[in-house]
Each structure stands twice: as C-alpha cells, then as structure tokens.
Amino acid sequence: MIDLHSHILPGIDDGAKTLDESLEMARIAVADGIHTMACTPHIYPGMYMNDGPGIECARFRLQAELVGNGIPLKLVTGADVHLVPGLIDGLKSGLVPTLNGSRYFLLEPSHTTPPPRLEDSVFNLITSGYTPIITHPERLTWVESHYPVFQRMVAQGAWMQVTAGALTGAFGKRAQQWGERFVGDGFTHILATDAHSTGRRCPRLSEGLEVVRRLVGDAEAQRMVVERPIAVLENLSPTDFGLPQKEASRPSAFGKWFSKVRSLP
C-alpha cells in the first residue's frame, strides 16, 4: 500500500518529535503493509514555516536513516498545505511542494471555519493545472452544513482523502459517520493515515481499509491505497483514475510504478 499523507519527518511540525519516533512510525507502517509514504508536513505561514527545499532535505536525511536501519520504506516529498494567498505562485515556484513533483497536492481546509470562497479557490487551482486532494473532510467541524460543497468540488475535479483512523472510530463517532458517508456515497478518492505519532495517530491503513471494503468492495478499496496513489506519484491524469465507484474495473498502473519504486529520489 501507499500512504500519501503523513507527518513522519522529525521535529518539523506537530508530527514526529524525534528521529527515534520517526523510525518507529516507519516500522509500524511497514508492518501494516505500507511500502511507500509521502512526507507531508504542514505549511502554514506564521506557524509551520516549511518549504519545498527544506522538506526535501528532511526527507533525504530520514530516508538515509531508514536505509541504515534496514527499514524498507520508500519516502517521497509533499506537504499538507493551507489555503492562503499566493498558493498558486508557491506551487509553481516549488516553495510549496506537490506530491512527488506531480500536479497533485494535499489541501487542508481549516478545521473550525469554512474558508471564504472555497469553491472558487479550488476551481482556480484546478484551472491552473493542479489537482487538490482535500484532506480529512470527515473531521471538519463544519462538514454538516457544507457537504454539498464537497460534492460540487469533486464534480469540478478535486479529490477527497479520508483518514483511515476516522473509519475505525479513532476520532470519535461523528468523524466515523461522516467518513463512512464520504466513502459510501462515492466521494472518496484516497485513504491515508495522516499519521503524527506511534500512538492513536499511527501509520496504519489496514483496519480502515477493511471498513472501505465493506462499504464499497475490494476493487474500490484497492484503488484508494494502490492505484490512485500510483496515479498521483506517476502524475497520471486524474480523469483516468478519479471517479470512485463500487466493484468496477479500471486500467492498472501497477507495472510502471513497481518497476521504479525503488529508484525514486
């Protein structure tokens, strides 16, 4: 499996605090069946002043530690990005990294307040050539009054990422119910861990994936943790892999990805 959302880099945001914690998170991920993980620390002006070059340096250092400790986890670069002025310019310049240099990037809305002109902003990002993957909508306090907004953004071309732990109740009943609705209604493209630690928010996908299988079947579950993540890392067209569906078949990108997974920078 591939995990496209994690805070595994040590000491860079509110995720792993130490190298030892990062290494233990990596061991947990590998034991769960994850072979590739995106390092996606927050970029939030005034709080987490990360940027693309800094994140890549931190990823490179942690990858070397994983190799030295015999942990077979491949790391790629990304970020958990907030909707702020100048975002498109940041994406174009590389100060705001996309996932593995692709058109896809993680977009985190405010947990407590719906961003003004959210739909227009997402539309502008899409028309600029990017595919925002909106992170954990099931956990936002304002999802009840804005569910149709998320549906419309999917129709525009945005993707949605539900947190695996939300589906197992790790974030409470409310997030669990909304996570099941996003998945069951066909508005979830990616399942990810959003891992921050070795505790409650650890990098495990498998238990949440079992919930997805019950809701939409094996084929769609596989697309959320293998095929669409491959499409992201290979920068394939979102129109080829985008629309969630129950027990339907899609062309596979497995061969191309697995032939080069070990050679990614």
UniProtKB/TrEMBL annotation:
Signal peptide: none
Pfam families the UniProt entry points to: CpsB_CapC
Keywords: Hydrolase
InterPro entries linked to this entry: Caps_polysacc_synth_CpsB/CapC, Pol/histidinol_Pase-like
Keyword field contains Hydrolase: yes
The enzyme's E.C. designation: 3.1.3.48
SUPFAM superfamilies from the UniProt entry: PHP domain-like
Reactions accelerated catalytically: O-phospho-L-tyrosyl-[protein] + H2O = L-tyrosyl-[protein] + phosphate
EC class: hydrolase
GO MF assignments: manganese ion binding; protein tyrosine phosphatase activity
Family as reported in the entry's similarity comment: Belongs to the metallo-dependent hydrolases superfamily. CpsB/CapC family.
Protein name in UniProt: protein-tyrosine-phosphatase
